[in-house]
Write the structure tokens for this entry.
Amino acid sequence: MKTRNISFKIVALLALLFIGFPSLAQDVAEGAEAVETAVVSEGESLPIYKRFGMSDTELFSWLLGITLLLVVLVLVLGNTIRTVAKRYSDEINKGAKILLIGLLVASPSFASAAEADGAAYDKVIVMDSLTFWHFIIFDILLVLLAFHYIRKIHGLLPDFAKPKSIINWNKLRKEVTDTVPVEEEASILLDHDYDGIKELDNNLPPWWKYGFYVTIVWAVGYIFYYQILEIGNLQEAEYLQEMEEGDRAVAEYKAAHPELITADNVELLEDPSSLAEGKSTFETYCVSCHMENGTGGIGPNLTDKYWIYDGSIKGVFTTISEGADNGMVAWKEFIPADQIQKVASYVLSLEPALPPLGKEPQGDNIFE
Ligand code: HEC
């Protein structure tokens, strides 16, 4: 009795430390919290309490509800013991007191969650990981305490009143495996005897047999689903569909990350919408020197086959990104790479405008 009392006190003390100490450290934690939020906004690691798909208010309400239920459970159990056995009264009273103190010590962190957030008035409750873990630790302690009480009540019951274990494991194993105990093996021994090797006539284990039946039922369903009613896609269609989805995801990712396009991997675009975008970029930034339709002014004629620099898509992309002599700017400072790709493609799509329509050639004819 004495030792139990002491261990209970130690557990309760640890609980207090657990719950109380982080509260003191709250201010420090709040600074860390700000960093955490910054990381979250980049979509890297989400703290656990953000992963429930609930708003802060909902999560807080759930946690509070569960905690209150547990508190009630623990109080009821404690009361039961007190009624059954007066001699535990003291311990129960202490347990209740310690719980109450724990709740009080942790309350600043619960309360901080309930503070109104100045920036967002629609958010009354703001969760942080400190509050979340306080709840979790407090709830775990309550559950442990409940189990402690239940065991105590179990111990107080006279033997005939103790509930039987709900699952009879021995019986269950027998039903699932249908084995014959070693002592009775003689009853299923077949009369073969090959050089001393004998054979038992065991039944098939029921777990195996029913598993087999399940596969038969499954196979019928499978055939109907895929082959007869053709509800599901066969492998090939599924493969093509997934490839399509993959392509779409890649395209979306590339669109969101223009910096992935470089002179090394840039490709010539020929679809009308990209060329139209390229044209509009050209009209914004380039016509002042290369003139309408790229026929050349201060800058060279971009429509002919003569190029001062590399006239391939990679070369044109590089010239536009990195710039050149005589006032040709390094446009990568002003235009995102995917737009440079489009304007480069547009430049390469231009109709030839030879002199006197365009400026006389500069550079080499790359086709000769
Ligand atoms: C301030 C005037 C100016 C502007 C604006 C300008 N360029 Fe140029 N660009 C030039 C000059 C000058 C050259 C020739 C560089 C040289 O002689 O080394 C040139 C060269 C080029 C070349 C290489 C031509 C070759 O023969 O190799 C390309 C391609 C080009 N410009 C595209 C563009 C595009 C696209 C834009 C708009 C985003 C643009 N330029 C805006 C002045 C300009």
Remarks:
- Residues 282, 285-286, 288-290, 298-300, 302, 307-309, 316, 319-320, 324-328, 331, 343, 347, 363 surround heme C (CB under 6 Å).
- The radius of gyration is 39 Å.
- Residues 22 and 130 are 7 Å apart (CA to CA).
